[in-house]
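Worked Example 4.2. Consider the chain below.
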Amino acid sequence: MKYYKKVAMRNLIQGILAMIFLGVTVNAQTIDKAAYFRVWQGFQKPELTSEQFLNELPSFMKNTVDLYQERALNNYIVVIPPTNRPAFIPDELALVTLHSKEIYEAIRATPEGQKYSARHWDVFNKSNSKSAAFIDYSKVNPEELIHNTAYDVIGNQINWARGFNAVFIGIKKSELSSAQFLHKLQSHIELAKSTMQPKGLLGYIIIANDNYEIAYLNWESKHAHDIAVQDAGGQAVFADAKQFMDVLMYEEAAPSQAGQTVAPGRAYSTLQR
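Applying the procedure from the previous section yields the following structure tokens:
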């Protein structure tokens, strides 16, 4: 009986918190800066064919935007890796940039939020699909990167719906151990940050995995991006990456409404403005 009373009290508290947070008006100017991130790695549900999976994703993407957009969502970047990816690369990746953790959790505690949580498993494999643990790299600055962990390399609160977004996926070269790869990746991140940030790189969020890196990059403009990657410093950053990674994908996250069709080898910025 005590257990059920505790559960009831917990649910009551969650409901009150949800009403408090969801009652807060978050205007467009506030949502123009993201302070909380979810970095999703989704593997296709085994019962689905690749075609069924790709057909189901737009509906799921629309569900995501519908749930969060009015109260918390700054941008929602979705990535479909190429079909020639290794099996350890997720079938879908997403960076969800949000106003705050508190509002995110309040939304997820509502009946609509719980329904959305369950909706994941219509599309994704529950056993290995999840958001990566997240660390603020600019504060922690670890000597060794942790496997399957996301880092906010620059650490500034920015508007991910503006500027130019790009996504990079690099795969560990086979001759390297996982430890060697993560060590080289940490050094590479420092090089990329110091070289690119002064040239207009505003946001830099990565997933460090034993076998790969995923990087979400936000630039102040496409013009700034193009100049930075073509000059000597930018070429040095790409040359450094190619010493220990094979490039699987480097693509613009093109503006696209959630609900539109998706294709392998593409990235989509659903709230770009």
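The chain has a mean pLDDT of 90. The longest strand covers residues 245-255. Compare this with Example 4.1 before moving on.
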